[in-house]
Amino acid sequence: MRSFASENISPDVVAFQFAVRGKIAIISEEIDSAIKKAKAEGKPNPYPFEKVVKCNSGNPQLLNQKPLTFIREITSMVEYPALTEHPELFHADAVARAKEIIKATGCDGTTGAYSPSKGLAYVRQTIAHFLEERDNVPMSPEDIYLTDGASIAIKIVMQLMISHPLHGIMIPNPQYPLYGACIQQLGGKTCHYNLNEDNYWLPDINDIKEQYEKYQNQGIKIKALVVINPGNPCGEVLPIDTIKEIIKFCNEKKICLMADEVYQENIWTDIPFNSFRKVLATMEPEIAHGLELISFHSISKGFYGECGKRGGMFACTNIPEFARLMMYKIISTTLCSNVVGQVVMSIICNLPKEGDPSYPLFKQERDAILGSLKRKAEYLCDIFNKCDGMSCNRAAGAMYLFPRITLPEKFIQECHERHEDPNETYCIEMLKKTGIAVVKGSGFGQRKGTYHFRIALLPPENEIEEVGKRIQVFHNSFMQQYK
Ligand SMILES: Cc1ncc(COP(=O)(O)O)c(C=O)c1O
């Protein structure tokens, strides 16, 4: 049998699922191609819409969010240094920053050369300074590792901990499916704790404790607990008391806390973002200097949305020297992360300040993006709560809503007879009838017997009313059909 015969492919690879790039994404592409083909051949459009609205992924610029001018001015000059000779084209502070970065790369090729494995020293220093200011806690650049987005950072960290099928990592349920996918790929055990839909999707420390005991009794050795704050897909933002409880729990069990904070700028209510690093530093010394904490950040989210440039990082707190050496070893096998992504990571950690020439435009662009996301979150949440058999918690943060749908028993039965996942079939129906692509709740995990979908708040604001209306009309008529 040849190496790539299906029976020979690693079962861990075959088994893992990644719903955000799953069947819905594939069907969306097929629909878009069919519409284009029909148009090119002068045939009638086979669908009742002009294009698919891709609300299935947190990819802001795909839905025409404009990149921040400050970031793009700097990256253009860093990529093509001759442009620094044309200061009339750029804001003066962007030119100065680009020159600083070009110098920091230490070579004429700027982003064309490999950087040190952990990332350019300049970039790590900038991030360390940002974290110090944000958290009021000292941070060494040596504890920062640059990666091609947070995704790979998460996998690298997990790789260090999983070396046996009974090594488990606790992740929220619902989760961002990267977590389950990584654990499975690495051959470990996914262990869930629950987010409580009846309490704005917040985790409950008693549930975390209960689940931990349950998994331990099954012989699983829990190595880490993951928190996504603000949360994807549910949009919860953790209050300080919950953060403290989770820190105490992880410290007591001597397990690593992985804090995914990629949505830290996306806050929609008066619940502020508090980093785990910051809260940890306020706790008694035994915990503050004991808990092993890894924090993740990325250029993909916030108001920057530079997903395609692939920049991210992880920062270590209280991680012993040997483990950091091993992280270095893993990271060095890829030589270094994408240098443009590193540059952008340094820019999002050092944005224009009041008085800088770029500040007025930067402020205008940032406020427009964040203001629009907040309005869209509120508008869609209201619409969903008006639909027959749909309910939705408001999102306190991140970029998504995760409404619950009560699927009619008759529909569920029919799907089961056809061996289909009712949640997926519902989302496919919605896609085919409305042109709106969302992700099935079962792709993130949900309490048994409940159904949801995740919608990204990313279509332009002038299209959001239409998106809301189309979903409402579709859903109400769907419910009617199965009454
Ligand atoms: C919670 C969460 N963590 C990590 C990532 C990965 O981001 P990146 O683009 O930096 O790899 C995402 C992407 O959507 C996410 O939602």
Protein architecture, described:
Helix 6 (150-161) packs across helix 7 and helix 14 packs parallel to helix 17 (461-481). This protein has helices at residues 11-15, 23-40, 69-79, 92-105, 121-135, 150-161, 178-185, 205-217, 240-253, 276-281, 285-288, 321-332, 339-348, 359-386, 409-417, 422-434, 461-481; strands spanning 53-54, 144-147, 167-173, 189-196, 202-203, 221-228, 256-260, 293-298, 312-317, 390-391, 400-401, 404-405, 436-437, 439-440, 451-456. It folds into 2 domains: 6-51 and 367-481, Aspartate Aminotransferase, domain 1 (Alpha-Beta Complex); 114-348, Aspartate Aminotransferase, domain 2 (3-Layer(aba) Sandwich). Helix 7 links the parallel strand 3 and strand 4. The chain is globular and about 65 Å long. By secondary structure, it is α/β, with parallel strands linked by helices. It has 17 helices and 15 strands. The structure holds pyridoxal-5'-phosphate. Pyridoxal-5'-phosphate binds at residues 58, 149-151, 176, 178, 228, 232, 260, 262, 298, 300, 307, 312. Homodimer. Residues 99-471 form the Aminotransferase class I/classII large domain. It is an enzyme of class 2 (transferase).
- Can you tell me the residue ranges where pLDDT is under 50 for at least 5 consecutive residues? none
Q: Structural class of the secondary elements? A: alpha/beta
The CATH architecture of the largest domain comes to: 3-Layer(aba) Sandwich
Strand content: 5-15%
Shape: globular
Extended strand count: 15
CATH superfamily of the largest domain: Type I PLP-dependent aspartate aminotransferase-like (Major domain)
User: What is Rg?
Assistant: 23 Å
Mean pLDDT: 94
Hetero ligands: pyridoxal-5'-phosphate
Distance between the termini: 52 Å
Order of strands, main sheet, comes to: 2-9-8-7-6-3-4-5
Enzyme class: transferase
Cofactor: pyridoxal 5'-phosphate
Subunit structure: Homodimer.
Pfam family, one: Aminotran_1_2
